[in-house]
Amino acid sequence: MSRSPSPFSFSSSSSSAGEEEAPILEFFSQHTKSGFEYDPSQPSSQEFKRLCDHNKWKPSQPESKVAKTEFSRAIIQQFNVNFGKDEKDLYSWQKLCQMVSIDPIPDTVEEAREAFESVNVNLVELTDGYSNGQPVKTFDTVQKLSRYTLNNNLIFPKQMAYQEAGGLLKCLLRNILNPSKDVDRGRGSSVHRRAKERRGGKRAAD
What we know:
Layout: H1 23-29, H2 44-55, H3 62-83, H4 90-99, H5 109-117, E1 120-121, H6 123-132, E2 138-139, H7 142-151, H8 158-164, H9 167-172, H10 190-198
Helix pairs in contact: 1-3, 3-6, 4-5, 5-10
């Protein structure tokens, strides 16, 4: 089966796009009055921590809790802007595949979804990577992804995502706090082996 060449290019959330197209940028822009200067080239989670340090917010403070909720919502909205909401949209799955270096990019929804779901990737970094062009790490197992996510405090707002996200994002949520529930997902699974065979034996870049 033929494969389409990569048709995608990525632009930073700090570009000329309107604020409605850059929810993370819009979130941080609301805090410039305090003297905080957002750096879109850095991971958004790191910038949020810097914002809290700048304002001397402790996790238990109401200001910190409100900001955390708003930031979590901005991440979800940014994912939707970057990749779309429809789990049946081929272009959305192809963009996701390109983000984790799947090559060639599948040209059907079924194959593109299968290929991407065979890879374990942190959704916060995936969202940031589309916006700032930074490489996205992938992991052989959900267990490794879980350790990395927890060690670096990169937990995607899963509960809020189920309430507010589109169908595409809901398909990608993993059990980071209990990775054994996702034991069949990842590169060691039969899903990955089938996807790998369809890609001519190639694997997503680590």
